[in-house]
Amino acid sequence: MNSAAERAELWVGAAVLAVAGSFLAWSSAGSGFAAQLSGGYELRAAFPNVDGIEVGTDVRVAGVRVGRVAAVELNPQTYFAEARLRIPDSIRLPSDSAALIQSDGLLGGSYIELQPGGAPENLEPGDEIEDVQGAVSLISLMMKFVDSQASEDGNE
């Protein structure tokens, strides 16, 4: 009887591991993680402000996720934040493309939107995207609005 109980435990354990393994494969395929491991190339972009951007943040083209942020580092000479973007080999961007930090709404997270240009040459692996727009702080925009309203009220 002890042997039958051990076999039953072994089969249940194997079934749990199989289900966990299939769930892991399904979730990594849906997140693009498998595509990142299988290749792609990196592009660089230096932003004055990368508020809300970190490793793993989405990189999108036309709203469709095409990659992830592989690293974010401060350049000590320029004091710009340099982001390395991992893009699949199947997507080639023109050399005059732009990188903008966008927000998913007032309470949503941020992502990097790539806007393809029209140049005949493409960016090569390791190239830098020159046309960038950093993150816009909603708090600083609200403070500017409040300051402008206060100065208008003071001038009347």
Description of the structure:
35% of the residues lie in helices and 29% in strands. The protein has 156 residues and is of the alpha/beta class. It has two domains: 1-31; 40-143, no CATH class. It has an eight-stranded mixed sheet, with no helix packed on it. The termini are far apart. 16% of the residues are buried.
- Taken in chain order, the helices and strands follow as HHEEEEEEEEH
Strand order of the largest sheet: 7-1-4-3-2-6-5-8
Average predicted confidence as pLDDT: 83
Our estimate of the beta-strand percent is: 25-35%
Write the layout of secondary structure elements.
Elements lengths: L1 H30 L1 H6 L2 E7 L10 E4 L2 E11 L6 E7 L10 E6 L6 E6 L12 E2 L1 E3 L4 H18 L1
Parallel strand pairs: 1-7, 2-6, 5-8
Antiparallel strand pairs: 1-4, 2-3, 3-4, 5-6
GO biological process, one term: phospholipid transport
Organism: Paracoccus lutimaris
Protein name: Phospholipid/cholesterol/gamma-HCH transport system substrate-binding protein
